[in-house]
Amino acid sequence: MSALERPGATLITIFGAGGDLTQRKLIPSLYNLYLDKLLPEHFMVAGLDRSGMNEDEFRQHLREGVDTYSRRGKAEDAPWRDFASHVSIFKADLLSPKTYTDIAERLASKENEWNAEPSCIFYLAVPPNMIEIIARGLTKARLNIERARVRIVVEKPFGHNLDSARKLNQMLTESFHENQIYRIDHYLGKDTVQNILAFRYGNTIFEPIWNRSYIDHVQITVAEKLGVEHRGGYYEGAGALRDMIQNHLLQILCLIAMEAPVSFNDNEVRNKKVDVLHAIRPIPHDQVHRYAARGQYGAGWIEGEQVCGYRQEPGVAQDSCTETFAAVKLFVDNWRWQDVPFYLRTGKRLPSRISEVAIQFRPVPHQTFPLAAAPELRPNRLLLLIQPEEGILLRFEVKHPGSTMTLSPVMMQFSYREAFKTPSPDAYETLLLDVMKADATLFMRADQAEAGWSALAPILEVWDSTRATDFPNYQAGSWGPEEAEILISQDGHGWMMPTYMQCEKDAAVCRVTTEPKT
């Protein structure tokens, strides 16, 4: 999140470079940073993989990824050739000590060639079971000792539960100092997620009402149309609660609920997030059913296309009890948020791909107008749209044109697309640049990762020990199981249907359409 300046000389080593993450996200993001002249003057990307790809095959494989997944579309020949000249592939056995001594020799060679001391970033685009092996190998080769120059990036999932997260943190901190470890959650790299902080602390009008006196409840929704696709094997060991709520949705909750940091220092911001997680009300094991609901999709229809149920997906057990939908109710027990419910939900094979935060304010305390003037006086609502539409909406009541006093709800709208006329960078662009600059503001600290697991531990333990007997319990193309509706309706609320911003091609304003359900 630091200013747009070029970092110093950098050597990036990607473990598992032949995989999907490197082709879809890492290289397209690095290439866009290169086009924006934000990469260092001296840089190298060294890919390590078990595959037998030679350098030309590897670069072609990466270019196909850029052509398919980059926000800029297909790469032009000349700039791609120049960028690709900084990219190499090395066949490596991650169990062999020679792999790590080769990295050390490569780093020393670049120091001499560039006449500079480069930062060395180790990006672990590998399965979780390889993290310890790589960390130990780097340590034995003494590639961990330059605290100011060496960083290791670890992808989610960071552990499987609280105990495994603690063990992973302990293992990593035996080899690396905490300020060298970057636990990445790509959601925090999104402009619209970072904009929550800008909106709250760059303006004065909302902060005075950002508390239990004015806010009734908060809903955070991350919905996906896709199923598990080719990730069935991974998803069987994860599920929606671990895969999405424990990281992405809890991160968003922290940004909504945190206190104002004294400064924009990375540890100061992260301290405030950890305070939120520590304040989450513990959930008694025998009350989990009142705080959480789970579901698994069956066969159904998505946009007119019939799709199979989760248990028919490749790599999924025919009697699987892995949840593909999870909804939880959390309370943040502190002065600002006492007794304000935060409802979090996520699921696969839902009707649309959308992420948004809905902040519902309390209703007006007194009905000033006659019932005929305002038969459905609705509370104010603030919507923070994260994806695919990016923006902010505020619902409030106004007088409808005419000779009588009649109130109607309207939306005040901000759209990233209309306001800035430029696409937002991919989240990985922001995060990779921050790693190169040693700015850890958008990355999880060890205590934050553990506090997130701790908050959800009772739900995980009950769900892991209790077999779901009603799976599948929602059709693909629906908004989830009935249990999720019961979860929120017991408090007198209902899930808000997502709000879609549809920008007219030739208009300067956005037309907002809201589905009827409130």
What would you say this structure looks like, in words?
The chain has 2 domains: 10-155, 3-Layer(aba) Sandwich (Rossmann fold), CATH 3.40.50; 188-514, Dihydrodipicolinate Reductase, domain 2 (2-Layer Sandwich). Helix content is 34%, strand content 22%. The protein has helices at residues 20-35, 55-69, 77-84, 97-114, 131-140, 162-175, 191-201, 232-236, 240-257, 266-279, 288-291, 416-420, 427-436, 446-465, 482-489; strands at 10-15, 43-49, 87-91, 119-124, 150-154, 181-183, 215-223, 292-295, 297-298, 300-302, 305-307, 325-331, 341-347, 354-361, 381-387, 391-399, 407-415, 474-475, 499-503, 510-514. Strands 8-12-13-7-14-15-16-17 form an 8-stranded mixed sheet, with helices on both faces. Strands 3-2-1-4-5-6 form a 6-stranded parallel sheet. The chain has a two-stranded parallel ribbon with strand order 9-18. A hairpin with a 6-residue loop joins strand 19 (499-503) and strand 20 (510-514). Helix 1 crosses helix 2, helix 6 packs antiparallel against helix 14 and helix 9 crosses helix 10. The two termini are 36 Å apart.
